[in-house]
Records
---
Amino acid sequence: MYTPQAENKFTFGLWTVGNIGRDPFGEPTRKQLSPVEIVHLLAEVGAWGVNFHDNDLVPITATAAEQDKIVKDFRQALDDTGIVVPMATTNLFSDPAFKDGAFTSNDSKVRAYALQKTMNAIDLGVSLGATTYVFWGGREGTETDAGKDPVTAIKRSREAMNYLCEYVRDQGYDLKFALEAKPNEPRGDIYNATTGNMLAFIETLDHSEMVGVNPEVAHEHMAGLNFTHHVAQAMEQNKLFHIDLNDQAFGRYDQDFRFAAVNLKSAFFIVKLLEDNGYDGCKHFDAHAYRTSDYEDVKAFARGCMRNYLILKEKVQRWNADSEIQGLLAYINEDDGSMDGYMGQYSSDKAAALRAQTFDRAALGERGQPYEALDQLTIEILLGVR
Ligand code: DIG
Ligand code: MN
Ligand code: MN
């Protein structure tokens, strides 16, 4: 019942199950797997797709001949396992060249190099089947605002996105961009810190129709926000092009925990939003196993991400079918239609009639809502007693 299927579109980045356990305070605890080994691991646990940053697959120091061999072997592993590549992205954050950003760097040579690197990475991703391209600007930020004008940074970001949208159009690629927000880490503050910022930024682009968002649970939680509300706004604007599912304690560094490992109720409402609205995109688990895990436990991590999604999907179905819950929802949303003539599309007649109305404000304040009862029923479904 909780076995992943292709139609679930569960994906993992090479960097997720391939995470070797290095952290700012400790050296790696796991050996580096090759991209081919990672593809086979993902096939073993039942994933549908694999994503990569350019340099997860091809080291930044690789020669053209080495790249060809790596890509050939990777493509063979995809053929052998049936794993697909729906998304690709560029590493514009690891190399020291990007220490002060990529597209927003104060060094025009770095900004130019970032465009070149991204065009090369787009070609690589498309050649392996990617139809979504993610941009996470991990270094696009500051530790002091003395060194960079935030308005200039926005303009540089826009120039880069417009340039790269034109590149994709010029190449005739079937590719959409998905912008991923994060409020901080590794920079002191990162520009376009939340999904809301990204939605506003996208509307200022020349080809905004090509660009959507890739919200990540951990990143909105780091900002203390309700992830489901941010995803709902993206979805309502038809801009939810991709999603990074993981989990995160509020107010902590980017923990990238297994999906639903921390906030079971928020994970439930994320799954409910996606399932109730028929989200058909990739469900990417941008997460990694604990530093203490060996590769058998890494597989348990990956299986847990997918199982938790499927278990919560079944809980959503149970919630939607629960007659007591549906009864409470009917009460909460009951409407005698008496206000319909005053609202909706504005007209001066409607406004005049509405202003002539008298409301019993005290009575309006007296009506309670059974949210405690409804939330308790939700908790009881999650606890498995309903
Ligand atoms: C971090 O959350 C970022 C990078 O791992 C990657 O660029 C992006 C893709 O999902 N997420
Ligand atoms: Mn993250
Ligand atoms: Mn991510």
Note: The pocket of 2,5-dideoxy-2,5-imino-D-glucitol (ligand 1) is lined by residues 53, 89, 134, 136, 180, 214, 216, 244, 284, 286 (CB under 6 Å).
---
Amino acid sequence: MSENSKKRVLSGIQPSGNLTIGNYLGALRQWVAEQETFNCYFCVVDLHAITLPQDPAALREKTREVAALYLAVGLDPEKVTIFVQSHVPAHAELNWILSCLSPLGWLYRMTQFKDKSAKQQQDSIGAGLLNYPTLMAADILLYQAHAVPVGDDQRQHLEYTRDLAQRFNSMYGDTFVIPEAMIPKEGARIMGLDSPTAKMSKSEESDYHAVYLLDPPNRMKKKIMRAVTDSGSEITFNDDLARAGVNNLLTIYQATTGETKEAIEAHFAGKGYGDLKKAVAEVVMAKLEPVQTEYNRIVGESGYLDSILAQGAERASEMAEKTLAQVKERVGFLARR
Ligand code: TRP
């Protein structure tokens, strides 16, 4: 199938914090599968990262790290476009135009804004935090993406993107493809090791919250051995919140090995939580070892990552500029001659 007849997919991850096994099992792993069937754009969303304060040197370093991890997990730059959001100015430009169409009421209703702004001093919250979903809509709509693989927590932002696209289309005529969310089925939602009722986050301060993709193996093991469980002893998949820790460990085991729930429960029947943790640590370490080897190879090859990102920015710009030119024409901007 030619690139043009394939459906387009776009997704992105912020270069803040450290990528975790949650990012891998819940997102990156799916992206690798999607690259075979879709025309994919995967960006490192640095513009989004600065909606909260970032250290400039760390931001630059994390941007390269996330891009290198995209490659290390198996995204093939010959098949997909990997780029840094700020390298394609069209994102910021479309964000402006869309923000003029964004009702404040919609933006204030976003749960992510409510959560993140609640943690800030009220009068110093940046306007960018409120506009976060509009920038995300720009990311998606510039590429006329049909599908957007995201975690369940981004569902509302996807709905917002669709609403905004429909609003633009009805005001100015059909311009944007209306994107669908592609939310992974069960088994992909990994919770915090120390707080198994909340999604594993890459920007959590606590040392025992998440296994990072670049953690040394002994650190991974230590974190998993410390995971919160409960006072029971039965090792079964269970929706009961009181058993969320064990359920999470089993979910990690399942997502990592691909075995069925029944086989996993049978395997652990009669065993203790210590055995479960050891087994989870083993499979996770084995899964990530080749990713780390590949990561080290990529960052060790001078100039390689930069050239991939330069090529990615070029390919992304081509598509983004085409959409942006049409948008500018529709809203009535005078063409530059
Ligand atoms: N908001 C997304 C997240 O935190 C990241 C993101 C930014 C994104 N732009 C996007 C995801 C476009 C999908 C498509 O997970």
Note: The longest helix spans residues 273-300.
